[in-house]
Amino acid sequence: MKGKTIVLAVLIGLFGFCTVSDARTAKIKLTRTELRDKIMGGWAGQTFGCTYGAPTEFKYNGMMIPGDVQVPWDGEHRCKWYFDNEPGLYDDVYMDLSFLDVLDREGMDVPASIYADSFAHASYNLWHANQAARYNILAGMSVPECGYWTNNPHADDIDFQIEADFAGLTSPALPDVAMKICDKVGHIMNYGDGYYGGLYIATMYSLAFVYDDIQAIVSEALKAIPEQSDYHKCISDVIRWCGENADWQDTWKMVEDKWSAEISCPKGVDDPFDIDAKVNSAYVVMGLLYGQKDMFKTMDIAMRCGADSDCNPASAAGILGTVLGYSNIAERWIAPVEEVENINFPHTEISLRKAYDMTERIALENISKAGGRYGRKTVKVPVAQVAVAPFEKSFEGLRLVAKDKTKCNNFRKTFVYEFDGCGIAVPGKLNRKKDGGVPADYVAEVTVSVDGNVEQVLMPSDFATRRFDIYWNYLLDSGHHTLEITWTNPVPGANLVMDSIVIYEKSEK
After folding, report:
1. C-beta separation of 458 from 445 below 8 A
2. Residues 276-317: pLDDT tens digits?
3. What CATH number does the domain located at 398-506 have?
4. Distance, CA of 184 to CA of 194 (rounded, Å)
5. What angle do CA 308, 180, 220 make, to 5 degrees?
6. In the chain, where the domains are located
7. Which of 210, 237, 189 lies closest to 319 in space, CA to CA?
8. Distance (Å, whole) CA 21 – CA 24
């Protein structure tokens, strides 16, 4: 371990740590060194946590990763190998940094539209809710419509959860400030439980500057989430089950039984693949609680829960890294980070060193605006009360009827499908064959009709601007419907592929 244990927060005029009740009216005092140490611990933890889980990402869906599956950790060069060979691994980090860059350049009053424009025109590739939002923005849709569930079939996916770290790290002990940032950024790509995933993670980061007790952090942060939401109910279950079950695997089974059947993401519906925010957040919380402030156990448990098993240990390690501080993280994890700290992440001009500086600068500005004070040696922060976010629910009033595994790759003739329900989603994509002679700017024009109501769908062949699903409509009247899909400008060398069809009906609740 590096250094000595850092005192977390001393109440002004008192001695000892903040408690949950203290934090409503208290101020905390940190040295400037302690503040920066925690910021560095958060970014470093996210980086080596992502690296630790890299070999298993989405390779174990709907199952725990067996104990005999060992993750290689070859010492100080582990992060450098991924920087050199698979830099796309760090998508959750460099997306975080792209939002941090906007905040640093434009300030706290920057409108959501600036974040959205930067995000939509960035050079990095995107998936799921992020890609659906990018498509919407490039088509002229604004925030929050681009992330709203009727416009984005992936609104409850994990996307904002993995890129919200910056909001908490720039808002030490100020969860209300973190929420303001999250409201702008999180609604670019998510809504409802998907938005709450990022808000919860950001709030835990913010509170990691206040408490050194993990139970206090996960419980107090949950107050930001409306109790009537499924997200709150799921995480409440997890916190309770972690207290009741000595073995994390027992809690994993209970999460799987009660919460794993998502109805949103068209790919994840009726499939072991689970990119749902609340379930992956559950795995983060399990890592934090069962890890007992041990970095390896925290990451390993979050990883072994499966699903998004690089992003979940990254979130857990980042939060714990903020609690511990960089100087108190074992050399085993810090050495690989130190080797890459001066290397810019892909698609950015920002290295970890630059991120530390930017985050500290923004954090001090936020502290000052909140009524705190800082000098060359100390920082005094008024600890903000955790406020409850407005209630949002994606896919409201819907239940899953079926996922038809029918596939189709011949839309040169009209595809016809009849169904009974009030909603439908058709996951699929446009494939461009290598050396097929298809121009990079080719856009497939697809006519989709439901009961004669025609919609023109554009599907770019460029991966960065692609449409993530062929079609969806959750606002149909209940009854019998006829879906027709025709590719009106087909070209050799390209292929329009449908993966399945998901049918919804009105919920009986």
Report:
1. yes
2. 999 999 999 999 999 999 999 999 999 999 999 999 999 999
3. 2.60.120.260
4. 14
5. 65
6. 10-382, 398-506
7. 210
8. 6
